[in-house]
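Batch manifest, entry 17 of 40.
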Amino acid sequence: MIATLRYEFRMQIRRPALWIVYGIVFAIQGVLINWYFTLDRGLGPILDPRQAMADVTAWTATLPMIAYGCLIADRLVRDRTLRVDGILDATPADATARLLGKFAGVCLAGAVPLALMVVGRGLVWTVMEGDPGGLLWSIVIFVVALGPGLLFTGALALVGPLVMPVTVFRVAFAAYWFWGNLIPPDLMPNLAHTVLAADGEYALLGLFGSTTRVPVEGALLNFLRPDPTAGTGLLSIALILLLAGATLPLARLRREP
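Output type: structure tokens
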């Protein structure tokens, strides 16, 4: 498992496409949400580093999570494409260990640029305010609030291309992310702003005091939108981790032709 993890991490982190795609998405996001406004909003009026970093993380992770899922979508089917899956199956290495190593390696590598975005904003806070709390909270918030969503979307991105072409999955994944996290639920029934949303909103709200919540009134599925508290934040984290744990084993159930 460790050998597979190290190999997959090195291979993924060295892909020029990883950095190019994240750079493009980051630039687009800066134009769409007026990056300098959110910088001032996150680092100026709010003096509490925990709340400021929670708000910054909510903005920062909006679109890059789509890039994260799309970029790692080809990693599990790559062995079959290169026709090395039979060779790997013939080695003494356990198939489950290889799967876990591949999952951990590609997820870690795919999360590095996003982590640099979030933690980099915490570093800006530390420099501007002279308060190391910004950097420390950005690390904690990234791991606790975004980590579960990264694990779930990583598992989904590995399993999905086993049942559909990679390109089709990438389009479907982007559509899912907008439907499940970004489109206002008063426009259509969806999972946005619920405890099942993979963007970590409930953890940011309930555990770290984010102020970015969009009020939802009269929308369907509002029973999945309880008041944000520490309890509902932890509930959301647990549910998303449960979804990740239920999704990844499907890769073993899908028999290769």
